[in-house]
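S1.2 Input.
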Amino acid sequence: MIPTITRNGFLLAAFAIVCTACVAIVNAFTTPIIAVQEQKALIKIINQIIPESSYNNDVFSTCFNVSDDLLGAGEQQQVFIAKKNNVPVAAILETTTFRGYSGEIKLVLGVYTNGKVAGVRVIRHSETPGLGDKIQTNKSKWIYSFDDTIYTPSDDKQWEVSKNGGNFDAFTGASITPRAVVLAVKDALIYFDKNKVNLLNQPANCGA
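S1.3 Output.
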């Protein structure tokens, strides 16, 4: 006769195996669905910051991964290239900053080949609701202040919030958040300028 403790051990192990299998099955079914939804969300953002009429390639298929401190220390980021008749029009870079109030602020930045900012969107953050969340387009128009801007080393001091003598408005009571975003965008533009040739000719490798 099997002792009670041994029988319970077998039952617990069987339960764990069944649960693990269920989780694996659910994950296998939902992963492709999640990937498709993420792709749709990203394409929607890209079309917000770069006019859809300005490119005609499958932007998502150009995806490649990069890693650089200017895009977020230790963070692997995705880059996409928008092209018109196979000629690069703009790069779309993901970047991350942890200089805000509450951890990660994830951004997508569109930059034309001449270095001009096409647009910036915040895709994830945990900043204070009612204060730091003004970096979202549905909370304020502040993020549009990056449109058509260009970074050059000679105007480096202008890439700060107004409270620190720069060109970008600082939210009342939450200047740390906009400052974090301004510096993240500036760093991404510096990265683009340093790596422009390689970025515009990089083969796709996401998922490789």
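S1.4 Remarks. Residues 4-49 form the longest helix (46 residues).
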